[in-house]
fructose-bisphosphate aldolase
Amino acid sequence: MMPKITRDQVKVPVDVLVDAREAYIDNYMAATRGTGRLMLFACDQKVEHMNGDFYGEGIDIADLDPEHLFKIADQGVCGVMAGQRGLIARYAADYPDVNYLVKMNSKTNLVKTSQDDPYSGQLHDLEAVLAMREAGVNIVGLGYTLYLGSEYESTMLSEAGQLIAEAHAQGLIVVLWIYPRGKAVGDREKAPETIAGAAGVALCLGADFVKVNPPVASDGKTSAENLAVASAAAGRTGLVCAGGSTVDAPVFLSQLHDQIHIGNAVGNATGRNIHQRSLDEAVRLTKAISAITLADASVEEAVKVFDGEADFSL
Amino acid sequence: MMPKITRDQVKVPVDVLVDAREAYIDNYMAATRGTGRLMLFACDQKVEHMNGDFYGEGIDIADLDPEHLFKIADQGVCGVMAGQRGLIARYAADYPDVNYLVKMNSKTNLVKTSQDDPYSGQLHDLEAVLAMREAGVNIVGLGYTLYLGSEYESTMLSEAGQLIAEAHAQGLIVVLWIYPRGKAVGDREKAPETIAGAAGVALCLGADFVKVNPPVASDGKTSAENLAVASAAAGRTGLVCAGGSTVDAPVFLSQLHDQIHIGNAVGNATGRNIHQRSLDEAVRLTKAISAITLADASVEEAVKVFDGEADFSL
Amino acid sequence: MMPKITRDQVKVPVDVLVDAREAYIDNYMAATRGTGRLMLFACDQKVEHMNGDFYGEGIDIADLDPEHLFKIADQGVCGVMAGQRGLIARYAADYPDVNYLVKMNSKTNLVKTSQDDPYSGQLHDLEAVLAMREAGVNIVGLGYTLYLGSEYESTMLSEAGQLIAEAHAQGLIVVLWIYPRGKAVGDREKAPETIAGAAGVALCLGADFVKVNPPVASDGKTSAENLAVASAAAGRTGLVCAGGSTVDAPVFLSQLHDQIHIGNAVGNATGRNIHQRSLDEAVRLTKAISAITLADASVEEAVKVFDGEADFSL
Amino acid sequence: MMPKITRDQVKVPVDVLVDAREAYIDNYMAATRGTGRLMLFACDQKVEHMNGDFYGEGIDIADLDPEHLFKIADQGVCGVMAGQRGLIARYAADYPDVNYLVKMNSKTNLVKTSQDDPYSGQLHDLEAVLAMREAGVNIVGLGYTLYLGSEYESTMLSEAGQLIAEAHAQGLIVVLWIYPRGKAVGDREKAPETIAGAAGVALCLGADFVKVNPPVASDGKTSAENLAVASAAAGRTGLVCAGGSTVDAPVFLSQLHDQIHIGNAVGNATGRNIHQRSLDEAVRLTKAISAITLADASVEEAVKVFDGEADFSL
Amino acid sequence: MMPKITRDQVKVPVDVLVDAREAYIDNYMAATRGTGRLMLFACDQKVEHMNGDFYGEGIDIADLDPEHLFKIADQGVCGVMAGQRGLIARYAADYPDVNYLVKMNSKTNLVKTSQDDPYSGQLHDLEAVLAMREAGVNIVGLGYTLYLGSEYESTMLSEAGQLIAEAHAQGLIVVLWIYPRGKAVGDREKAPETIAGAAGVALCLGADFVKVNPPVASDGKTSAENLAVASAAAGRTGLVCAGGSTVDAPVFLSQLHDQIHIGNAVGNATGRNIHQRSLDEAVRLTKAISAITLADASVEEAVKVFDGEADFSL
């Protein structure tokens, strides 16, 4: 069982203003369930991938109803549920205990990279988020996606840079999704040096966590070993890996264990792998993941949780 | 006869601030005539299609006078009349009882998609609408058109995202018109998965209603059956279908009945089909449509209303 | 002799806020000389056409001095003199009785449509105009030029839409110049359906008046007959025609008479035809035009005024 | 000897607000040394032409030190010294008696017109200038460069238009540099009709002075005769000519005399011709120029001043 | 031993407002360690060059941990450590004595100049920096990178111009990184006239220091001799040279000595050459550099410091 961290072990960045310091620690402790590790349940794909991630072959029919996401977050175990402001606004009243992370920008997948370099624009200002927080919604932080290497990189860097400064000043934590992509990046999207570079950029912007794709294996190094370089490059910004498309749960849990224990990731960011399953199975998978991320369970223990042979709760 | 909903059955999103909660419920009940269903009379085509929708072969000469639209809204039965701010400003004093929905953006049809991907820009800020509401104009909400898949998608997503947050904070309801369009979309504008994706995007932005084109029939499924998937993807955002070009009234009413009872649409958004007729005929059509949308009438009952053999009023 | 309208006959749009209602009626009555008809003296060509409209063959040498414009407006009869803010600022102190309409945007004619679609950008904010009005300058309204069908249409629609809302809130009237133009429009700039479409757009933006080019004759209909369709499409927005290049005065006056009495135009917008003449002749032409526009004179009566055989004053 | 003008002879434009009226007259009188004529010492080329105007063959080595410019302005005779805000900020404390005109925009000459149409962007807001004035720096006005006919013309027109309104409201004078340039202009940059058009645009924007290139001679007219047309087109905006590259002093003085006495220019704007010389020679040239501009000296008298055979001071 | 300058020898530019004057002098004295010379430790490459400057062949493994940079700045001797706001925010609480210079803009090296001209966008507003300063972080100034000759030059000039005005008004010093680059510059990036031009631009923007690349040797002149021209062109803006890629320490120190004593540079800006070494070696190199920059040591003395045979501290 992983020891909990204490409030004074939280390394509060200096752009968290004095008045917001306690709020930041509250949010950091809530998001990491008091462990310093992040189990992020990614629910922003209804824009990013449109309905293709929620309906079709191999996807449980329950996933067609957007409320499925909230049920999983509510009944399962996760640190934060990440989604667009509007999505959260429509359901949060019925799921008040979930920790919400507002994804500030999004794009659809209709325009492909072959047509134009990717740009994901900010959907609204921070005021719109703060107003919801003040109205009592349990918002602990923000998310923003950055496509480094896109011809629109500068706009995204600026939007992210400004948001992080303002969010920290208000005590909110910030998670960056960084995906190098565009004509300039080509097939090097998951090259180890690209991923490590992305991690360093997140640090320079001041993010609390950065979500990257797992680097490819290369030069005799496994993906997790290459990930360790990226984790080091991220410095005091915690690095977590995107989950990718749905795979067999034990395989997924094993990869996650390696990412954390070899790659020095400080958690996970998982979406499709969870919500494309039935509610019961999805709930069990969040618990299995959290057993690893939040309680240093072994792969075997986690698989038992997934299989319903053991339970995990906070 | 469809039972009315009560005020406390309205699912108020959490971005409606406390002070605006009663106003939002008022607006929602007014727009849906207390049913939760939306009968939207679309009157924004004088920009979108210029004069071609209002004058020419097959169009009643009455439609050339813009006041025709207001007479229909006033004498007929509808939930809201949607039009640009300026149009409303010129006539609303004489038609104070109509529920107005301000269409916030518009473009003409002069530049075709083959020349450039579509962008419809916001015509003015929200202040301009709130000032009119404060001056006593009966404005219940806003509309905004989004062309997903356009190279300008990000700008429209941002304008819509910000408007929804601000409108809800002020107690206004928001209807999105979402039409996937552009080089990236090609001939898939009405493909079922495209329409369902659009519906999910509307939810993530937090819209109250989304107006989409009816999906094509495909894979042995009718348009209405495909629509049911989109309605599910929209979650708590109500989905309604655009009416398209003028067709025979019984055919139109039958399609609408299917959209609602098979496709789970929560109403209709109809323009040309109504206003291209004489005032008397147009008024009867609004009543026939509303009989279906607002009172669960059968197609046969609705046709009788259209034919003047029965009346319908609220 | 055309009867004057009374103040309570002015149809004040609802975006004119309560505090600005009397100012709007004042401005409307001043601009239309109490008739509801507009005689607009267009003096914005020093940017639009640079010096080519003011110096050269067939142009009276008096026109080279910009003060010529103010002398005409002062000694002649017109409703408003339209010009850029800076031009007005330089001379208005010496011509305090002229009604000024500030043209808010302008472009030169150096970049041709074959090189790039036209965009005419806003030259300054509304504050700059209001400050001058507060300082006592007799400003009754604003003007803005829109090139529908240009690839920059959306920017101009947004600038115009916002300006109209703000100007009305301050009691100022607004005249739109709408010229469909650009690659998408090609040679249909003056097609009847294009002009009628432009008229409808002006209404949807909430303009008080719209200045369009006279449509071409077509399908057995004269230009004036085609204009009647556009006037109808404009609804409560008054339509006036641009004067175009200098022609013989009787021909010009006859065309104007037809525009008003067949085409239902509510006035005229004339520039070069007036100012390219000597002061005396220009003054007489403003009076001849105003005799038709503001007093329903016959062409014959107006020609007498132009010939100095009769006088016209308000 | 040219008679001085009195304060009440200054034609104050109506956009100079009442509170700023005395400041405007002060600045106008200071800039024109009480004559209504402008001797502008142009020192903005360190950005416009980079170091090429200040170092190299034919340029006195003294010109390499930027302080050279301030020494000339201080010891010589000129109306205003024009330079970028930052340049002025670095030296003004040591040269407090110079009248400064802040050049608000600038571009380098690295990107040629053959690569892209020119755009010179505003370097900072007006507040940055007003703060310096309030701190006691002797700032009398602003300058802005406009490339008419560039594809970026609209942005520069808007920046200039807004700045003039705000500067006048604060009592500052404004000088526009207008150079028609770009693909659309081609080799007509100095055509008489182009220059005259530029002059009219300056008036419509409300500038106090406009700096243009001398038009070419054409159609049997000299450059100065063609300039007279431009001066007339400028109306109440005073027109001055750019000096161009360094030429023999007597030739330069003769051209200036013609510009003023034949071309009706109201002064000069000279840079390289002055500062590329040694301090002593540069100082003498400013005096020779000022003798013509500010005191209606003959060319012969001015040459004597340049040759050190006569002195000129205010 | 170089004599210290006194507070009243600091040439405070006039855009430093009265209230900020003492803060500016404090910051200038701190950044230059009371010498008027700048030893800038450049730590912004984690964005500019991504992880390639921090991990790989020839780079000490210590450099992979971002905290390495702070340890060097803390234990070594430098004037300021330059890095992005977010990077500083994450570590400054543990390294409170370092003088921080916030690098306001950054871009990655993914998009090459062959694909698009470079633009480095501002990452956040100045408020975000001032808030951190108010919270007690030891921030003495700002940095901004300008790519002159890029097609995006105008945006960078405007961002830099505005930032300098605002930073000075708040008592912060500003260092510009100016690298002429883009299609228009081609292989003339380090041509002497290009570098000298860049220096002059920095002055016109009002920068306190400008960092340029050392010019190439040409026309029988060494790089340092050519640098002297640029230093002169910079006037009262201090010029320092970028360090470039890692070279042998004695060679580096010798080049620096020439830059200062032949090229009239007022310091150095060094990054990779320092941080790619082990902590001990890096610390010794900062001391060796500072011996030259801040104490006029000879190359031999500095090499001894680097070799650990002598120490240097302030």
